[in-house]
UniProtKB/TrEMBL annotation:
Any matching Pfam family: RINT1_TIP1
InterPro entries xref list: RINT1_Tip20
Name of the gene: Rint1
Organism superkingdom: Eukaryota
The protein, known as: RINT1 protein
GO CC term, one of those recorded: Dsl1/NZR complex
Record-level GO BP terms: endoplasmic reticulum to Golgi vesicle-mediated transport; regulation of ER to Golgi vesicle-mediated transport; retrograde vesicle-mediated transport, Golgi to endoplasmic reticulum
Taxonomic lineage: Eukaryota, Metazoa, Chordata, Craniata, Vertebrata
Length: 228
């Protein structure tokens, strides 16, 4: 259960190792017979169906172990990325995202994603470098003087988007968007709490860093507004 990468990598290897044989030996036979079947894609689809069976059997066994469940989701997302980008798998075919979209699994994914995002926010705001710009010495890069915590937070949101963007239904994507909105609001509250501690020094370093953070986040969210 703790090594889903073993069978996921094995399937990718099988697909890669057989592609030349399927293209050069099997596909001409199908073409000659007037069939519209793509040998390589059908081979991939059959192997993916085996993975779906395996996932359906494994997921209930690790649903409540955060570490194992997170590892499985991470490995499945990596597998899906390579399957589509390297091996040309079709989005209309069955995929692992359909398994991750099933109710009990999906709700668990959302819960775990939120838990780890909040932990990340705790660590980024308690870091000694939280209010310092990592580009502070490079003036042409650092016009907005973005503190490290704001940049790390927006990267966190971007990573979450990247993880859920291939979900098969809009309703599931919207649930993840809801999580991101919760995280933005949570971050706003945290900034407000820090700001209240700094009101006596409103021209101080940290107070200015908070204003820069808010400006940066608002600007990036406005840039993302066109991303359906």
């Amino acid at each position: 259960l703790n090594k889903p990468e073993w069978y996921l990598t094995q399937v990718l290897m099988w697909i890669g190792n057989h592609s030349k044989f399927l293209d050069e030996k099997i596909q001409p036979i199908l073409d000659k017979a007037g069939s519209s079947v793509n040998a390589g894609l059908e081979f991939s689809r059959a192997l993916v169906m085996l993975i779906l069976e395996k996932l359906a059997a494994d997921i209930p066994c690790l649903l409540y172990d955060d570490t194992l469940f997170c590892h499985l989701v991470d490995e499945v997302l990596l597998f899906e990325r390579e399957l589509y980008s390297v091996h040309g798998y079709l989005s209309s075919f069955p995929s692992c995202m359909h398994i991750l979209s099933e109710e009990s699994c999906f709700q668990r994914w959302l819960t775990v994603e939120k838990k780890f995002a909040l932990q990340k926010m705790d660590s980024m705001l308690s870091s000694e470098a939280a209010w310092i710009s990592q580009y502070k010495d490079i003036t042409d890069v650092d016009e907005m003087k973005v503190p490290d915590c704001a940049e790390t937070f927006m990267t966190l949101l971007l990573v979450i988007t990247d993880r859920y963007k291939n979900l098969p239904t809009a309703s599931r994507k919207l649930q993840f968007l809801g999580l991101q909105k919760e995280l933005v609001d949570d971050f706003r509250i945290r900034l407000t709490q820090v700001m209240k501690e700094e009101t006596r020094a409103s021209l101080g370093f940290r107070y200015c860093a908070i204003l820069n953070a808010v400006n940066y986040i608002a600007t990036v969210l406005a840039d993302w507004a066109d991303n359906v």
